[in-house]
Amino acid sequence: MRVFVTGASGWIGSAVVDDLMTAGHEVVGLARSETSAQSLASKGAVVLRGDLDDLDSLRRGATDADAVVHMANKHDWGNPAESDRAERTAVETLAEALVGTDRPFVVAAAISGLVEGRAAVESDPSPAVGPDSNRGGSENLALDYVGQGVHTIISRFAPSVHGTGDWGFVNFLVCAARKQGVSGYIGDGSTTWSAVHRSDAARLIRLGLEKAPAGTRLHVTAEEAITTKAIAEAIGRYLGIPVVSIDPEDAGAHFGFVGGFFARTMTASSEITRAALSWAPTGPTLVEDIESGAYATA
């Protein structure tokens, strides 16, 4: 298949591009910079210049493709409303271009905020509805297009998609530990995160694109629940610094913006996903990655 990928040079998107090409698919990658364009071209991917605000490029990429994988997000932590607006507009633009084609449309989403008090499961609907909700309600918006002949597949990602070069949440936790001289967890450290290695996540996206029925929600999680204390302890062991509890009121000052996420339980089961697509994660665990130096350049 000819697959159009947004976020094709990003942390997860670049791994998805590699996996798709290894499996024999042709990739057209959206690139907003010359550096990104050169990186994609060096892999043998077709480059389409543009970004999330370039709606004409999004339409062209989707119209000319056999399938679309939407991985891009602005991740503007200082202006989340702008990230939400751009996400909703991009999903709507891509979906409209696919109406009536029954072509696969894989949309990245998050497991955070789905449920409280238990691990989320694939049948849990997202509570985010409408443009003013989390990620602009893009998950539900994309699923609304199933009835219009769009083969939507939702991929809900763990809060940590880890591996060498990860610049996500764990990267910021390591940075905070280096800055503060201690590796912290919040309160008693009993809150939990799900995690998945980048290579396993990329393979699951490809399997979903190839096999998942329209309307499927996939959970891109390998480890269902790692305590935040265990994450802090792994960072402490790697850096050789003390591990301490941080009062919830001091979390913002200690961790920066990531403290708000570190204080939340964000977990999901992937039992249904594994069974449906015969997906078995094989990459290292989050603790193994931390201890082996995957965040050495954080």
UniProtKB/TrEMBL annotation:
Gene Ontology annotations for the cellular component aspect, listed alphabetically: cytoplasm
Recorded GO MF terms: aldehyde dehydrogenase (NAD+) activity
Secretion signal span: none
UniProt domain NAD-dependent epimerase/dehydratase: residue ranges: 3-83
Classification via Pfam families: Epimerase
SUPFAM superfamilies assigned: NAD(P)-binding Rossmann-fold domains
Name of the protein in its database record: Oxidoreductase
Organism name: Streptomyces spiralis
